[in-house]
Amino acid sequence: MNKKLTTLLLAMMLALGSFTGCSSEATEEDVEATADTEEAARISMTLSLWLPTSKNTTEEAIELAEAQINRLTQAKYDTAIELKAIPEDKYQETIDGELDRIAAALIAEEEEAERKRKELKELKAQGIEVEETEETEEGETEPVEEETIVNELGISVIKYPEVGENQLDIFLVQGYDNYLRYIENEQIQQLDGELSGNSKILKTYIYPTYLTLANVSGTYAIPNNHPVGEYQYFLVNKELVEKYDYNEKDLSTFLKCQDFIKDMGYQVDNGNEDVTPLLGEVEAANMVYWGEDPSEWSVLASQITNTMSYNIKAAPKSIFSTNVYINTVGMMKELGELGYIGDGKVDEGEKFAVGVISGDASVVEQYEDEYYVNIYSKPMMTEEDAYGSMFAVSSYSKSLSRSMEIITYLNTSSDIRTILQYGAEGVHWEYDDEETKETISILSDDYQMDLVKTGNVYMTYPGEGVSMDYWTYGKQQNLDSISSPYMKFTGYVNDTNKAQIAELAELSKTYKATIDATPFAEWKTTVDAIKKEIKDNELINSLLDAEENENSIASIYGAWYDENYPAG
């Protein structure tokens, strides 16, 4: 542990009356022994929970939700929660400000304590008698006598302590850069010991890839479990396959459907069918373009396939070496010129021979009676999915283990989770049927939270009138998902190569115009000619030179990959 953190934590002991050290990689036995000791000495405690909210959320609504949450946490853990709901647009600034303020305050306290120690030592050296305050030996704590108050019913109840001035317990980490910064600045605590002990149940409630990615030389935050991305399905009409004697196994990929689509177009042209041959334009799935603007087409590209994972290398290359892209563009040119492509809209009562539709796993149930439903592209986990919403325990927390109890509760129980998301029951929401509790209705808009930013989404309702059965589709999405190999990649444009990147953008515009203007009859010839040009292009070769040009896109990406995935 470095000197700075040691100083901060010593000061925390003075300010908070408890000491939370730098987390260690404890064994399960160590964690359980610690938990047993703390359980035996468990005292009433108040923790702060900081999270972003809508600007429309009122203070009164927050207080009502906090009161209902506390009925649960006080009964279950003897822990009260002070809910700190901050407007989303001020949340990051507020959290960073609090962390900096507490750090400065604790350093100042330690400096003042050191000054007093020196002053006392000097007075003693001068023979001046000074009355010393009695301190407990290191590692011991004074027994705490819990205060009680009489409530409105005349019953004596525990009075929970206020959150300390320099206490910050649980807060939401948003984004990979922030996560790394908090870890490097030792502002959040390592949680691996808790995940091996009292909070190990989290491993069965959170999609494993989330926890794998959260481990950055240790796990320092718990990702809020939620569905990843969406599917693209390609659908093939069952009736037409059977009627025209096709074998569904021969139509297992979208590109293999080209002849079937042309055949159905021929039947339409001859008045034999009333069907849209291809529902709408289709692009090669999950193309990633390398250039000034990632949303703009580029000569340099990569395709994230349905077998990709975050730790698989996907280096940039010429888009004209990606056969799926070339063949898909050619297929669209031919079908478009024949007039066989629709507007992409699924109109009720109308049918199509083949189509690509985006959505969640419910698309399968919606279409499987009439269509063979195949995955065109799987849901893809991005950096925002993995790091955009994670609960961490601050290094200035009153108690790591008690904070993790609350985080675990939010991830595993629907009672507290629903209150934190939707507000006070009976005021902001209610069950549509108190007996079945299948769905809820929203009663007030005074309390508004982002579903993904308040914990495990699968523990609460997807929305008003929507059963929790809906999450079956979300869980299936996670099981089928792939993860972007560019997660955590910090970029490749720098002062040395930005002129080349700008030149690449202009070159790409020229080639894109050529592609768009090329008719299908000339497509193969044009592509072959472009491939030869690209092979001899000095700019492209320089940007893809991973050996000689350290500022090339390929070199920067390769160095990043080797650093992050050395065994890859």
Structure at a glance:
With 568 residues, this protein is α/β, with parallel strands linked by helices.
CATH topology of the largest domain: D-Maltodextrin-Binding Protein, domain 2
Distance between the termini: 31 Å
The low-confidence runs, each spanning 5 or more residues with pLDDT under 50, are: 1-38, 136-143
User: What is the helix fraction of residues, given as a range?
Assistant: 40-55%
Largest sheet: 5 strands, mixed
- Tally of discrete structural domains: 3
What does the average pLDDT come to?
Answer: 89
Record field, number of beta strands: 18
CATH superfamily of the largest domain: Periplasmic binding protein-like II
- For the biggest β-sheet, the strand order reads 2-1-5-15-6
Give the helix tally.
20
Q: What is the 3D form?
A: flat
